Amino acid sequence: MSNRISNNMGADDTDNTSLHSLPLGPEELPYVHKVGVPPKPKLLKEITDTLKETFLPDDPLRPFKKQPRRRKLVLGLQTVFPILEWGRDYNLSKFKGDLIAGLTIASLCIPQDIGYSKLAHLDPQFGLYSSFIPPLIYAFMGSSRDIAIGPVAVVSLLLGTLLQDEIDPVKNKLEYQRLAFTATFFAGVTQATLGFFRLGFLIDFLSHAAIVGFMAGAAITIALQQLKGLLGIKKFTTKTDIISVMKSVFGAVHHGWNWQTILIGVSFLVFLLFAKYIGKKNRKLFWIPAIAPLLSVIISTFFVYITHAERDGVQIVRHIKQGVNPSSVDKIYFTGDYLVKGFRIGVVAGMIALTEAVAIGRTFASMKDYQIDGNKEMVALGTMNIVGSMTSCYVATGSFSRSAVNYMAGCCSAVSNIVMSAVVLLTLVVITPLFYYTPNAILASIIISAVLGLIDLDAVVLIWKIDKFDFVACMGAFFGVVFASVEVGLLIAVSISFAKILLQVTRPRTAALGRIPRTSVYRNLQQYPEATRVPGVLIIRVDSAIYFSNSNYIKERILRWILDEEETLAEHKQPGIQSLVLDMSPVTDIDTSGIQALEELYRSLQKKSIQLNLANPGQVVHDKLHASEFANLLGEDKIFLRVADAIVMCAPKLEQV
Amino acid sequence: MSNRISNNMGADDTDNTSLHSLPLGPEELPYVHKVGVPPKPKLLKEITDTLKETFLPDDPLRPFKKQPRRRKLVLGLQTVFPILEWGRDYNLSKFKGDLIAGLTIASLCIPQDIGYSKLAHLDPQFGLYSSFIPPLIYAFMGSSRDIAIGPVAVVSLLLGTLLQDEIDPVKNKLEYQRLAFTATFFAGVTQATLGFFRLGFLIDFLSHAAIVGFMAGAAITIALQQLKGLLGIKKFTTKTDIISVMKSVFGAVHHGWNWQTILIGVSFLVFLLFAKYIGKKNRKLFWIPAIAPLLSVIISTFFVYITHAERDGVQIVRHIKQGVNPSSVDKIYFTGDYLVKGFRIGVVAGMIALTEAVAIGRTFASMKDYQIDGNKEMVALGTMNIVGSMTSCYVATGSFSRSAVNYMAGCCSAVSNIVMSAVVLLTLVVITPLFYYTPNAILASIIISAVLGLIDLDAVVLIWKIDKFDFVACMGAFFGVVFASVEVGLLIAVSISFAKILLQVTRPRTAALGRIPRTSVYRNLQQYPEATRVPGVLIIRVDSAIYFSNSNYIKERILRWILDEEETLAEHKQPGIQSLVLDMSPVTDIDTSGIQALEELYRSLQKKSIQLNLANPGQVVHDKLHASEFANLLGEDKIFLRVADAIVMCAPKLEQV
């Protein structure tokens, strides 16, 4: 396979006549290595390799190889229930960490749950239900050690908005609940299906930048919604855009604001933000912001109870249904019109919930340096939501704020979720009546202080610095959510993300190369202004696979490079171009349209008497050049290992280094 | 800008201590050139450059530069009406060529037009109308010299299928016609808009392979539809899939087939195919297949007229409305439900028509080596269809078969279209009554022999050889059209084309590199089995821009490369990996998610005590590495111009070539 078209500086004498004629001394004669043509893989192997790389890039069956049958069964069970694996090494010292972390996130989640269920237009107990069953399931099936499971602000808002468009949550309460469970069921099915069929990469199509913008927009929207509770306004818009909300708020200035409510709400908001500030300043005091919400609830509830502020118009939570989750299997719509609607809402909510959970899982896994399997994780989250939908829960996922607290409180495993779940169970069975006098304002304060953490200004600044297109996606999603609605923001985010991908594949970069002084390396002339052009030779690098989506553009762009170069040369009264060298290093693949474009380019160049040369085609490209006979048309001797070798042939008089 | 981190083999002494410690003799000490950091372009310039490259890659304003105002006006007019440009050099010898070509394509188009309008479920005169006005408009505005404009088989079939789904063409003839004009209007608007906003690249998203499959499938479908006319069947299915058609055909065996019709149809089909064969064998006899259809029509019409075969059940064309195109401005639906439907159908038909016309334009332009401006071409086609929709024409575009005849007959400019248009006008005004006795069977034979040319078996074989994925797209589109419907086939073609793009950006290739013996070039170990690994160093090349859609995959794939390599090394009891060199040559861009992935990779490697090095980042990537501070985190001295330089630092003991 390893042919040498040129001389062998070692034992053999050069016998290549075309090289003999070159005016190069033997010490300058470079070693020219042939482009590699390994044996072509069998078709079936090629296909299975591609499929494997697409769907099983993490090689999940690796540990099963060369194992006895019994061991394979154990490994299989451990794959589905990772608790069987890490549970065997579990010990008391780990439990101590998990216990503290579990209690901390429980104290944080109880008031949040009650508030978030309001965002989803559901009764408070449904939030608590969703913090009981789903975390339990996740603890057995999930592979992240740090994630804290439960209802989260953004998904609650999204679900509330989408469901409200279909059914009025006040007038048709029961139907609304049923549709919520239906959506939760299909959210779970979507998640589990994506994981099972290893299509997890689909969520990668929502770009990081778009998520940052979407989250920030959702945070602002959620905070604005809380003005209702914080100011004690009774009549409030059902829309979520900033203009409608502001109209609602200022329309209610004279007769709708309740100063007692504002007093309670604002003072506790200040307290919560101060607690957050302390936690940020000193990382060891992380428990202060973690415990502050529950503390606020206790104090404010007690305060309302003794002053009977509810008589002065301070709105309170009142009744929360006591007891564990009732079954909701019979409430899910499996037929009819609402099945379709529930499915649609479920898919959207499930994808967003997944995006959030996977992002959290990855972040903490890379901080503690363990691997999490995205697809396995999706199956776990999906199962948890399917079971949840049958036990009166709505869509649960990993929460940013609570996972961070979990991590800082020293959690060691998913046992902290079990602890939290146990505490929530206790709350449901025993202490829900104690929340009767809890003012709504305090819940609003807690939610505002929680969602402010979703606004990541540093990330926005970094995005601006790194990639302007990403910044547009980020801002598009942000303004879409704030000024229109959650769905519009999401749609903008997805569209811009896709537009970026399409732009990338339609308009790849091309660059003219020059020789870096005193080397035989050829690089972009724009990046290396000190590089020199080779007289009579134009060297162009194509920075992308050549596919149908860009083959025409690439062909025409190369012809334009030639036109530009010839114009410049003519201006300086220099001779024209004799050779074009295409550096194919970044061309990782080519398809039929690409080959066609190359052929057209070749013919156009022939008419201009310019010789086409290719440098460093990769394996796949080289195979296809041969399969299509283009290599024969061009001439095998016009394909080189590197640009320098091509230059030796094109411009033999040029001094070589 | 051009820094050198290493020694200068020339005048200066080396003063770099880290290099002093390397055990390399001065003759082995390679010249290490710094990665180029040109001044960052201004933000505004960056944005305008990107926009220009996306929408104006062909630099259409180039000729306007440095011109006086008056000249600019002339150039502007010439841009819109290219006839003003080439018309000035027009002469008699060119007209001779165009006259012959125009007469030839006219003789071919008249019978085809009558047949194709049947495919679109429209009366025969509408096909003739569409060969009169649109070619005239195109001749003034179009830039292709070889294209022959008129109704084409595939678009007629597509339009017929889509329109039939909305309105019954027999029962509601007038509404059907009105919807057809509405669709034509919006097809024109779509085409002109795409061209005007320079979004022509959108049609590049339908891959060549998908088009080949789609065209072949459409050809089969159209040929099958002609069995109705060829066999003289009266009751025929309105579906287009092969199964329904075959049921219809064989269901009519005993009482529906008409032997006189079959005799006429089949004998002339044989004649037409033989004429085609002669034309293919001897390219100079191209006029034989070109004239054969009209000849068949004349002979068979005469034959039916004298034998009165129509009394024996041979179906004939009967009445064709005489006279030029009536206005249809008031027939277009500008309001109501049909507006939306017409718009939808128009967009689809317009895109397909565009794809066909642009492909033809490009093919012949590259054969005669002139440039056509895709966007300008779309404006011309769009205008022609808009005007057409107001003059009782349906969607016209460039025809493959007639353009080829046009080219071979020696056309020199769009004047051949004007000639054809004049002949069609004459036909409409004078000789339509002569078509009264033309048997439908002859039209069926003409269409079958025409569409068989759309089946490009050679292209299919080539696609199979070059790219298996393309072959799947091709077959998917083909079977979709044949077994389901034109829309399904189209949908499959577009979906597979998109799936390919998405696959490309989600699962890019990575490769381990080794050193090619006796060079300092590092290449894919799989492609060059003779290349050698560098002990203690793993060199990985990432073959794609790193974007949000693949950043995670790339990170995890690289970690898996390390895992695999370490396993192999452990098996052979060799020391582990100390350094990872990432060859960034093909990484043309990186976004925020990509930078994040690199950071995560860096941290994971740190925990494994593996040093990360980057080789040859491009300009954009290098800028972003700096903007994000990742370059500082990694260390500026870990970024190298090429892999060989990185290896010098990582494995200093390795002998250098």
UniProtKB/TrEMBL annotation, chains A, B:
<feature type="transmembrane region" description="Helical">
    <location>
        <begin position="343"/>
        <end position="365"/>
    </location>
</feature>
<feature type="transmembrane region" description="Helical">
    <location>
        <begin position="442"/>
        <end position="464"/>
    </location>
</feature>
<keyword id="KW-0472">Membrane</keyword>
<keyword id="KW-0812">Transmembrane</keyword>
<feature type="region of interest" description="Disordered">
    <location>
        <begin position="1"/>
        <end position="22"/>
    </location>
</feature>
<dbReference type="Pfam" id="PF00916">
    <property type="entry name" value="Sulfate_transp"/>
</dbReference>
<feature type="transmembrane region" description="Helical">
    <location>
        <begin position="205"/>
        <end position="224"/>
    </location>
</feature>
<dbReference type="InterPro" id="IPR018045">
    <property type="entry name" value="S04_transporter_CS"/>
</dbReference>
<feature type="transmembrane region" description="Helical">
    <location>
        <begin position="407"/>
        <end position="435"/>
    </location>
</feature>
<keyword id="KW-0813">Transport</keyword>
<dbReference type="GO" id="GO:0008271">
    <property type="term" value="F:secondary active sulfate transmembrane transporter activity"/>
</dbReference>
<dbReference type="GO" id="GO:0016020">
    <property type="term" value="C:membrane"/>
</dbReference>
<feature type="transmembrane region" description="Helical">
    <location>
        <begin position="147"/>
        <end position="167"/>
    </location>
</feature>
<feature type="transmembrane region" description="Helical">
    <location>
        <begin position="179"/>
        <end position="199"/>
    </location>
</feature>
<dbReference type="InterPro" id="IPR011547">
    <property type="entry name" value="SLC26A/SulP_dom"/>
</dbReference>
<feature type="domain" description="STAS">
    <location>
        <begin position="527"/>
        <end position="650"/>
    </location>
</feature>
<dbReference type="InterPro" id="IPR001902">
    <property type="entry name" value="SLC26A/SulP_fam"/>
</dbReference>
<feature type="transmembrane region" description="Helical">
    <location>
        <begin position="259"/>
        <end position="278"/>
    </location>
</feature>
<feature type="transmembrane region" description="Helical">
    <location>
        <begin position="285"/>
        <end position="306"/>
    </location>
</feature>
<protein>
    <recommendedName>
        <fullName>STAS domain-containing protein</fullName>
    </recommendedName>
</protein>
<dbReference type="Pfam" id="PF01740">
    <property type="entry name" value="STAS"/>
</dbReference>
<feature type="transmembrane region" description="Helical">
    <location>
        <begin position="476"/>
        <end position="499"/>
    </location>
</feature>
<feature type="transmembrane region" description="Helical">
    <location>
        <begin position="377"/>
        <end position="401"/>
    </location>
</feature>
<dbReference type="InterPro" id="IPR002645">
    <property type="entry name" value="STAS_dom"/>
</dbReference>
<dbReference type="InterPro" id="IPR036513">
    <property type="entry name" value="STAS_dom_sf"/>
</dbReference>
<keyword id="KW-1133">Transmembrane helix</keyword>
